Amino acid sequence: MKSKVQIKSVFGKLLFEYESSDNTVKKTLLKSIKEGADLRDANLRGADLSDANLRGADLRGADLSYANLSDANLRGADLSYADLRGANLSDANLIGADLSYANLRGADLRGANLSDANLIGADLSDANLSDANLRGADLSYANLIGANLRGVNLRGADLRGANLSGAVKLPMHCKWSHGITNENLIHIGCEKRNISDWDIFFKSDEVLSTERNTKEFKQIQAVYEAYKAYLTFLNK
Q: CATH number for the domain including 146?
């Protein structure tokens, strides 16, 4: 039996409609992308888009809150300013996606691949990012308050200005002890330095007891960048 499905904007404007047998929102959305419809600000709240191939889709400002996007292919998609509150993005492919200033509060991103994604200014508070791949992602000024970061891969990620307050199990592993002193100095091993001095060190060729260009040195630098982001936010 044929049925017609309409996709409207969050403002009520008709963006696309499609009629077919056994029609669904997913089928209509895929058809709209194939035909090059303008889907900016689309209202897709609560839609079942699991396993959908949305690679490169332009969904800027779309309402995808509480949508099911598990296992979806969103590689290179533009989701900037999108509302993804409470959405299921578990195991989704978000490589290189633009999620800048997106609302991902409480979203399920377990096992998602967000490598090289743009998450500048994104709200990831209370999101579940356990076992997600954020390698090389830009998380500068992102809100990660209360986020679950167990097992997440943050190698090469940019955390400048990010709010990590209350984040669960941030992977801060290196062979030396580390922390923040009462004087806001960052200590790694027996070295205690302020942010400026640590920045100079990491830009230099100075070697303390760990050789540069090794996995151990990268872990030390990753620990420093996390503490730096934390202190930078606190001292705004």
A: 2.160.20.80
Q: Which two tokens stand for residue 110?
A: 């377990």
Model pLDDT for residues 114-151, shown as the tens digit of each residue: 999 999 999 999 999 999 999 999 999 999 988 888 88
Alpha carbon of 108 to those of 18, 86, 175, 203: distances in Å?
A: 30, 7, 31, 37
Long-range interactions of 31-35: CB distance < 8 A, separation 24+: 32/7, 33/57
| Same-domain status, 117 and 180 | no
Q: Is residue 83 domain-shared with residue 145, that is, in the same domain?
A: yes
Q: What is the mean predicted confidence (pLDDT) over 60-73?
A: 98
Residues 159 and 55 in one domain: yes
Rounded to an integer, what distance in angstroms lies between the CA atom of residue 157 and that of residue 193? 22
State the pTM of this model.
Answer: 0.73
**DSSP E strand boundaries for the chain:** 2-8, 14-21, 178-180, 186-188, 191-193
DSSP track, 108-154: B-TT-B-TT-B-TT-B-TT-B-TT-B-TT-B-TT-B-TT-B-TT-B-
* 52 shares a domain with 164: yes
Expressed as residue numbers, the domain containing 202 is: 173-236
Cα separation, 2 vs 92, in Å, equals 30
- Asked if residue 190 and residue 117 are part of one domain, the reply reads no
